[in-house]
Amino acid sequence: MEGINKRYNSPYQNYYYPYYFQVRKNIINLDKRLLVSNEFSGKRALVTGGTAGIGKAIVSRLLEGGAKVMTTGRHVGNDYQNPNYVFVRSDLSTANGCSTVVNEVMSHFGGVDILVNVVGASSAPSGGFSVLTDEEWQKELNINLMAAVRVDRGLLPSMLKQGSGVIVHVSSIQRKLPLYEATLAYAAAKAALTNYSKGLSNEVGPKGIRVNSVAPGFIETTAAEALIERLSKQMESDIVTARKALMKSLGGIPIGRPGRPEEVAELVAFLVSDRALSINGSEYVIDGGTIPTT
Questions:
Q1: I want to staple 197 with a disulfide (CB 3.0 to 4.6 A). Which of 47, 124, 169, 277 is the partner?
Q2: In angstroms, rounded to a whole number, what is the distance separating the alpha carbons of residues 35 and 46?
C-alpha cells in the first residue's frame, strides 16, 4: 500500500488514480471477508426462531463467521449443508419446549458462548384491548417474553461457570410505539423483554456475561413481503404503492424504505463479537429513524 500511495502522489497521479482506488477497494473487501470468516471460529451459538426472517439472517451470519450454530423452530429447519449447523424442532411458547432446547444445547455443545433470543410473534386478534382475553395475553407473553426468560435461565448457569458469554434479546420498537388496535399485547410483552434484558445485564455483567437488546422497526422479511403483496391486491395498486402505504401506517420511515434482515444480522454480529466487549446493558434501535426524537 505504501508503494501505491507514493505512485498516487507522484506527477503521474492521473494515470494511477483508477488503479489505486480499485486496489484499495479490493484490499478492504479482502480484509472484510477474512474478518467475517474467522471472527466466530470456535464459538457455540444458539439462535431461537432462526428458520425465517431476522433469525434466519442471524444464523447465516454466524455460520459465515465460523460459529457452530443451533437454531429452533416449530417446523422443519433450513438445510444449510453445513456441519456446524444444528436444528431442533421445538415450541418455545411452552416451558417443555424451552427445556428441550436447553437439553439439546448442552448435549451437542456443552454450553454456549452466544445466545440470541429472536423468537417472537403475535397471533392476537385486532380490535383493541377489549378483544384481548386472559388467554390471548398469556400466549403473547409466553412467546415474546417467557421464551427468552426460560432459555436464559436454562443456559446462564453454564455461561456463568465459564465466566464469559453474550446474550442478545431481539425486541421491537413497538415497545415504545404500540399499535393498540392490532398488537397491544405483543408490544407490552416486548416492553417487558427490554426491561428484563436491562435488569439481567446489571446482574450478570460483573460476572463476565454481556446482555444487550436490539429493537427493529419495520423489517421486510418474507412474511412482510407477503403482507405487502396482499395489501397491493386489496388496494388494487402496485407493490411500491402498497409498501409506501404500509410504511405510512407505521408512522413513516425517514430513510424511505424498510430495513432488511441482513442489516439486523450485522448489528447482532457486532454486538456478540469481541469488537463490542465494553457494550453491556444497551438497547440498539434499528428502524430507519421511525421513532421520533423526544
A1: 169
A2: 21
Digit-coded pLDDT (tens) for 172-195: 998 988 877 778 999 999 999 999
Looking at the annotation, which residues are catalytic? 186
pTM here is: 0.84
Tell me if 160 sits within 8 A of 209, measured CB to CB.
yes
Per-residue cell: 210: 454481556
Residue 160 makes CB contacts below 8 A (sequence gap 6+) with 204, 207, 208, 209
For residue 26, CA distances in Å to 19, 30, 31, 34, 35 come to: 11, 6, 9, 12, 14
Give me the pLDDT at residue 5, please. 43
Tally the residues of the chain: 294
* Grid cell digits, residue 2: 505504501
Strand ranges (E), 160-259: 165-170, 209-216
74 vs 89: CA distance, rounded Å: 5
CATH 3.40.50.300 given to domain 44-218+259-286: no
